[in-house]
Amino acid sequence: MNGEDRVQRPLFGGAISSCFPLRFQEVFADPDRDESLIFELLDLKHEVGDGGSAVWFLQDIAREQDAEETMVLEHSGTLEAVGLTSLNGPAIVTTAIGQMAIAKGRQGREAQNLVRVYLANLRLKEVSTDVVITAYEPILIKSEHLDCMTSSGGMTVDSANLGG
Question: Which family does it belong to (predicted)?
Fold first, then answer.
């Protein structure tokens, strides 16, 4: 992290602040419902077409999370957001909704929860940036999940009842 550009960021509503490299994302979480909202600024994926970019990022998340039972439920076509511009060009927007079985951290497959993932990709080609906004909503929380006692976001079940 030495030599990287950093930015001062307020935490906990401004109660404290810290410096982070610019490459880190913004994450908002509701621990009571086990939901999260993530904003990422990424280098533009030139090899990914505009129309399939949201689905590509959704599948990339599934690979990174070692997800099982991944499916794309819906995806939009390409929209040009004329009101949202970067330099001289409008943002290109695509969306996707998926569902996947994922575990938090290093909890293992036995603690995988069924999660609905809502993803929007705003492509700012003029500045070579993909803005990825992802929301996670638990649908089914296995009882082996470490946070299941404090979560009210999804139905809790014992994995023995699921055959898992």
Answer: Belongs to the MOG1 family.
Note the pTM of the prediction, 2 decimals: 0.73
Residue 125, CA distances (Å) to 65, 93, 132 in order: 27, 11, 13
> Is the Cβ–Cβ distance between 104 and 111 less than 8 Å?
yes
Task: Give the model's confidence band at 62: pLDDT under 50 very low, under 70 low, under 90 confident, else very high.
Answer: very high
Pairing of strands 68-75, 89-102: antiparallel
Coil, strand, or helix at residue 32?
coil
The domain 35-162 is placed in CATH, from the list 3.40.1000, 2.60.40, 3.30.1370, 3.90.1420, at 3.40.1000
Residue type, 39: F
